[in-house]
């Protein structure tokens, strides 16, 4: 399978496996994958998507024990590391703009078209997901991806965030499509400046905080 993923994403998988060193992952990982668990991960370097897939399967099967709910929760939590490394992605109060900015960043996270924005509105979005992995790995990665976008929208102050699969490649559909909806963040009320008189007439005073 061709393709590479940036280290900021790869590092999340490595950290999860390192946190469970008491378990053995030899049945899931190749020697080069195991070597990554002992090396420093460069968040700006490229890593093989094949290795990324095997690490993900090890996490899904050996740590999450096949629980897709845990995978989705982890996806939501993983937003923090991406936003921490790329603060410009998050626009507080504007989930739509935050999604747009992520899709600009996405080109620097994958060197292939893993994600595509199919539709984006003020309170909904449809996202295509195609990692090109085997079905079980693709399903786990897609669930994590849905959780990631749910987390990003919530972090941008979207309310009542909901994600669902509209199509799933591992069940025979041509592609996987994630549908997202949310309540837009409440509009900020404009601050009215106070007028205070002076000997030269009325002038603006600083806004009340």
Tell me the major beta sheet.
4 strands, antiparallel
CATH superfamily: H-NOX domain
Q: What would CATH call the architecture?
A: Alpha-Beta Complex
* SS field, number of helical segments: 7
Q: State the share of residues found in helices, binned by percent.
A: 25-40%
CATH topology: H-NOX domain
Number of domains as seen in the coordinates: 1
Your description of this structure?
The protein has 209 residues and is an alpha+beta fold. It has one domain: H-NOX domain (Alpha-Beta Complex), CATH 3.90.1520. It has helices at residues 7-18, 31-36, 49-63, 68-77, 79-85, 95-105, 135-155, and strands spanning 4-6, 46-48, 115-120, 124-129, 159-167, 176-183, 195-198, 201-204. Strand 7 (195-198) and strand 8 (201-204) form a beta hairpin. The model is unreliable at 188-195 and 200-209 (pLDDT under 50).
Summarize this, please?
The chain is of the alpha+beta class and 209 residues long.
């Amino acid at each position: 399978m061709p393709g590479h993923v940036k280290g900021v994403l790869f590092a999340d998988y490595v950290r999860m496996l390192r946190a469970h060193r008491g378990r053995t992952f030899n049945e899931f990982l190749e020697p080069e994958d195991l070597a990554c668990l002992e090396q420093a991960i460069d968040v700006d370097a490229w890593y093989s998507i094949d290795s990324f897939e095997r690490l993900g399967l090890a996490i899904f099967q050996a740590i999450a024990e096949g629980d897709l709910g845990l995978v989705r929760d982890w996806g939501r939590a993983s937003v923090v590391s991406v936003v921490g490394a790329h603060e410009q992605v998050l626009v507080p109060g504007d989930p739509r703009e935050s999604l747009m900015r992520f899709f600009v960043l996405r080109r620097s996270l994958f060197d292939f078209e893993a994600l595509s924005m199919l539709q984006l509105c003020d309170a909904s979005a449809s996202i295509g997901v195609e990692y090109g992995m085997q079905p079980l790995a693709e399903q786990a990665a897609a669930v994590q991806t849905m959780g990631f976008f749910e987390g990003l929208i919530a972090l941008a102050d979207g309310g009542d965030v909901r994600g669902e699969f509209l199509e799933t490649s591992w069940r025979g559909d041509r592609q996987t499509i994630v549908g997202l909806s949310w309540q837009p963040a409440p509009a900020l009320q404009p601050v009215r400046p106070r007028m205070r008189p002076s000997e030269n007439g009325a002038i603006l005073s600083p806004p009340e905080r």
